[in-house]
Design goal:
By secondary structure, the chain is an alpha+beta fold. The chain has four domains: 154 residues, Glutaredoxin (3-Layer(aba) Sandwich), CATH 3.40.30; 330 residues, Glycosyltransferase (Alpha/alpha barrel); 64 residues, no CATH class; 79 residues. The chain is built from 25 helices and 18 strands. The strands form five sheets. Strands 1-3-2-4-5 form a five-stranded mixed β-sheet, sandwiched between helices. It is globular, with a radius of gyration of 26 Å. The N and C termini lie far apart (65 Å).
Length: 675
């Protein structure tokens, strides 16, 4: 029976034709395991995961392995992007037991969903000290049939250990100047001054930390914070992790130099980095930051936008290399011979110097990842632009990587915020329109009549899985950004509906937050994590959205909830700043106010009003919110009682709804928001 045929997850659909008798994560799967008295194999991955594809090909497509699984196990396949709660709970167990994690995640469970044996990728045969997958299956079956009491003891101990990990919050205060200074010092110690970024290989884009550094510089003037952010952004933009032909960032670099990426391209990385580079340009005027922000925004719209107006989750790392074999990076890498075939010898030699393509190759088998190495040679800009155009055209004739076209609510919220702001900064109304289109899809498809969010959709159809905390928080963040950019108060209203759910369904009363709602499916533990991963933690993303909404509306419960949620950042920020970057960024906004800017004019189309509005959006004050409209407009509480000044458009800069004298001068407004 093919139980995966009707699901919305492209990852699960990739396994629908396996000989393994897969079940989706459902109560019926565990009932079947209980009926048959067999353990459950839980396999968790995602569509752009290279090693997930490898293990699927080696083991799950193998008839003999599948027959053994079908006879002795109930096999459950989970898309971690659709069920981040399931992924989080069992990944915590894997990491606790083995000291490491990753995908594919392979966990063996009792029919009560209690884990007792763990791993990630297993090869088909023993290799490099790893047991073969068939060996693992036989060992687990033997333990289940011959040593059931030991299995039960192990499973019970693991569940008790996980249950005891609930975070004790105690309503701590938000971090202050001291904690933020300590966090900056910790980041400075961990900073790679030669290559940019933090730590060693593999090296991931530190998007949330970069946002903190930019905000800290804006509030304090700390040049070291800005330097770390700017240098890291330049190193990434020049490296192979950035697609020099098509724009957009790969998931991470396998080396410390940002040279060779793991080639999958994720929506969340590109949304976060688009916003970071736009904010870096706002702070510095950097031409490189401007180019990368716009190229990344264009990549989002061109490569990831779906027919319905949302944004797809990812592009695969692998693609057909032209021989029928799926090879990692095949779409992106070049050899000198391939350059010559497209460009001719002279231009190929120049392209090789410009992009760092070598005869030995910087990747594998003589292929190179295109980069922009720093060098003394000055290149003719028109000739380079022509070369890039021809290489792009040639690349489009290669088999393209597959696309996971499910729409994830949280990641689309991040994209809405990034595209709205980037479009506003650079006078690109098409980008703002793309943000509005995605926001509209989230309302039409993901939001029900009770303002409950669905985690995913595909082809305009909502998936069955409920939204988690990061969905409510990041979508609210996107709606708040869209409200500031468009002047349409309906987005503020939608943000408020989502944040009301955060206050009533995701909190425990002390200020702590959970990743799943109180009425969500019960797992062996209710997931709760205040630290960032590839995206801002739901906990601190909620704190940021609550704070922004409170600044727009004066809603005291939302501000209080934000302040209390940030107590965990006070505890973690000085110790592990790399893992609470978004929380630190939100704390910067709290310390700054955040500032509230009301722009009033006779019309949103009035030139002077538009100038003041754009100036307000370009202010670097951390977390500042902007409301724009006509005097007396009731869409934004910030506009209440804010008249024109001598008949001219005016801007009011406020904190806690107490305002300085209004100004009609964009330069004075710019100064007020840069102080």
């Amino acid at each position: 029976m093919n139980r995966l045929a009707g699901v919305t997850s492209p990852y699960l659909l990739q396994h629908a034709d396996n000989p393994v008798d897969w079940w989706p994560w459902t109560p019926e799967a565990f009932e079947e395991a209980r009926r048959r008295d067999v353990p459950v194999l839980l396999s968790v991955g995602y569509s752009a995961c290279h090693w997930c594809h490898v293990m699927a090909h080696e083991s799950f497509e193998d008839e003999e392995t599948a027959a053994y699984l079908n006879e002795h196990f109930v096999s459950v396949k989970v898309d971690r992007e659709e069920r981040p709660d399931v992924d989080a709970v069992y990944m915590e167990a894997v990491q606790a037991a083995t000291g490491q994690g990753g995908w594919p995640m392979t966990v063996f469970l009792t029919p009560d969903a209690e884990p007792f044996y763990f791993g990630t990728y297993f090869p088909p045969e023993p290799r490099h000290g790893m047991p073969g997958f068939r060996q693992v299956l036989e060992g687990v079956r033997h333990a289940w049939t011959e040593r059931r009491d030991e299995v039960a003891d192990v499973a019970g101990k693991i569940v008790r250990d996980l249950s005891g990990r609930e975070i004790s919050h105690n309503g701590s205060e938000a971090p202050g100047e001291g904690e933020l200074a300590q966090a900056l010092l910790g980041l400075t110690r961990d900073y790679d001054a030669q290559r940019g970024g933090f730590g060693g290989a593999p090296k991931f884009p530190p998007s949330m930390v970069l946002e903190f550094l930019l905000r800290h510089h804006a509030r304090t003037g700390a040049e070291g914070a800005l330097q770390m952010a700017a240098d890291t952004c330049e190193r990434m933009a020049r490296g192979g992790i950035y697609d020099q032909l098509g724009g957009g960032f790969a998931r991470y670099s396998v080396d410390r130099d940002w040279q060779v990426p793991h080639f999958e391209k994720m929506l969340y990385d590109n949304a976060l980095l688009c916003r970071v580079y736009a904010h870096l340009w706002r702070a510095t005027g950097s031409d490189l930051a401007r180019r990368v922000a716009l190229e990344t925004a264009d990549f989002l719209v061109t490569e990831l936008r779906t027919f319905e107006g949302g944004f797809a989750s990812a592009l695969d790392a692998d693609s057909d290399d032209g021989t029928g074999a799926h090879v990692e990076g095949a779409y992106y890498v070049w050899s000198p011979e391939q350059l010559a075939e497209v460009l001719g010898e002279d231009d190929a030699e120049l392209a090789a110097r410009y992009y760092g393509v070598t005869a030995e190759g910087t990747f594998e088998e003589g292929f190179s990842v295109l980069q922009l190495p720093v060098q003394d040679e000055v290149f003719d800009a028109d000739r380079v632009a022509d070369i890039a155009h021809r290489l792009r055209a040639a690349r489009t004739r290669r088999p393209a990587p597959g696309r996971d076209d499910k729409v994830v609510a949280a990641w689309n919220g991040l994209a809405v915020a990034a595209l709205a702001e980037t479009g506003a900064y650079f006078d690109r109304p098409d980008l703002v329109e793309a943000a509005v289109g995605a926001a509209d899809l989230l309302v039409r498809v993901h939001l029900d009549d009770h303002a409950h969010l669905s985690r995913t959709s595909r082809d305009g159809r909502a998936g069955a899985n409920s939204g988690v905390l990061e969905d409510y928080a990041d979508v609210a963040e996107g709606f708040l950004a869209l409200a500031s950019v468009t002047g349409e108060g309906v987005w503020l209203e939608f943000a408020g509906l989502l944040l009301d759910h955060v206050l009533t369904r995701f909190t425990d009363g002390s200020g702590a937050l959970f990743d799943t709602a109180v009425d969500a499916e019960r797992l062996i533990r209710r997931p709760q994590d205040p630290t960032d991963n590839a995206t801002p933690s739901g906990w601190t993303a909620a704190a940021g959205a609550l704070l922004g909404y409170a600044a727009q509306t004066g809603a005291e419960p939302h501000r209080t909830a934000a302040e209390r949620a940030l107590g965990v950042v006070k505890a973690l920020g000085p110790r592990v700043p790399r893992f609470v970057g978004w929380g630190l960024a939100v704390a910067e906004a709290l310390l700054d106010g955040p500032r509230e800017v009301a722009v009033v004019g006779p019309s949103l189309d009035d030139d002077a009003t538009r100038t003041l509005h754009r100036t307000a959006l370009l202010g670097t004050a951390p977390g500042a919110v902007v409301a724009v409209g006509v005097p007396g407009g009731d869409e934004f509480p910030l506009l209440d009682g804010r008249p024109l000044v001598d008949g001219a458009p005016a801007a009011y800069v406020c904190r806690n709804f107490t305002c300085d004298a209004p100004t009609t001068d964009p330069e004075r407004l710019r100064a007020a928001l840069g102080d």
